[in-house]
Amino acid sequence: MRVMLVNPRFRLPIDTRTTPHLGLAYLAAVSERRGDEVLLFDADVEDETITEAVRRFRPEIVGITANTPQVKSAWRTAAAIKSVADIPVVLGGPHVSVLPAESVSRPEVDIVARGEGEEIWLKLCAIIEKAKAANPDFTARDLLDSQAGLLDGLLGISYFTRDGQERHNPDHPPIADLDTLPFPAYQYFKMDRYTNLQPATDAVDGARSFSVMTSRGCPYRCTFCSQSIMPIKWRARSPESVLAEWQHLVEKFDAQEIGVLDDSANIQVDRLEKMADLLIKHKVNHVPWIFVNGIRANLATKELLGKLKKAGLKRTAFGVESGDPDILLSIDKKIDHDTIRQAFKNAKAVGLETIGFFIIGLPGETEETMDRTIQFACEVDPLIANFSMMTPYPGTKVYEIAKRQGRLLLDDWEDYVFFDGRARYELGDMTAELIERKWKEAYRRFYLRPHRIMMTLTRKDFWLNYKRTFKVAFKTIFPSKEKTDLRRSVEAEASV
Q1: What is the pTM of this model?
Q2: What residues contact residue 140 under an 8 Å CB cut-off, 6+ apart?
């Protein structure tokens, strides 16, 4: 069967990770293993329009990924596909998993797949393949026929039947054994058109960068985190499976950089230590790698980080969020500042680069608490301090707090992006003006300290990448016009 997987057009106002979409790479892999013919369409790097690709490939099912700021682009993409033919269109991703009714109520969307998508996708493809074998003229309209009941037993999906019944089938259980998944199928991407994992940080453009996920799920439920909608059960791949994929990326794809995308990679320290031992033993530790989303500070011992450094780890991040103890407690971070301090010390002691993630404008914040966050950032002094204004994504506790007790300032999902220079909500005495002012102040106070300026000017990476650095800095502070022009461009392209 011909399956098409789509990452809709979506670019942030500043440069961010520009690597292939890992979720689609997994779907492509399970489809390939099923025997399907696969076309992967990443709108950000394609030379043709989505309609041209559909006419050329003639897919029998299309899967589209959608996070919150991307969902409107996903809808436009679905509409463009439907203008060519009545092909079953499936949306997946965090946003539609939280708000499935919003998408399936649209005529261009047939099905929403909620949560982890691989097993749902395989079962849905099998249903369609069987139906098409019996009826070569089978369409999406036939798939949604309540009398036929083709979707009745498929867990984890939402849809509207042809006669207008809204259906939300029970959740699909998370994948129990992640080792059973094939390696992400990067061969379907135009790899030469991507840059690197963190262009704002790394100096080399055009690096052959790949993402790896060694575990899924997160046992923590921080109030601000959009991952709170995903399975709470933490599941890990075996160190042997991770090693095999690492070797696959290095030997088959000539990987020059690897990013681990886990949300909680070090939940089991012994597993991570064994993984490091295997990378060293099998001599694939020459390829630098990073923890893109960071690791838990309370489990970041000097011994563990030292071993990971020997295994090729170049950079790690820690989610600090707030420098105020009460705010840290209120967001269910389940960590204290002394532990965070020690984690940064441990990382620096073994020679790792560090990134600190900080949030300005959490519920209950005042100017004083935001000041404490800036002060704490200066104290732990990571190589990169990433300050973001709190964004209340649907499905998070902060979103519900903002809706119930405050005032959401955004009415367009495309505005739910990082680094666009605008506060997303107000709550109590915490005004948009205050949040925006402290956010800008945070960057000034952190990066314009004399020793930071000197450190920056003496780093080789800065001079190799100074044009990008200045561009990112400018767009961070003055992003409004860029965002407006970007939206117009995205909407114009999707309408083609």
Answers
A1: 0.90
A2: 86, 87, 88, 89, 110
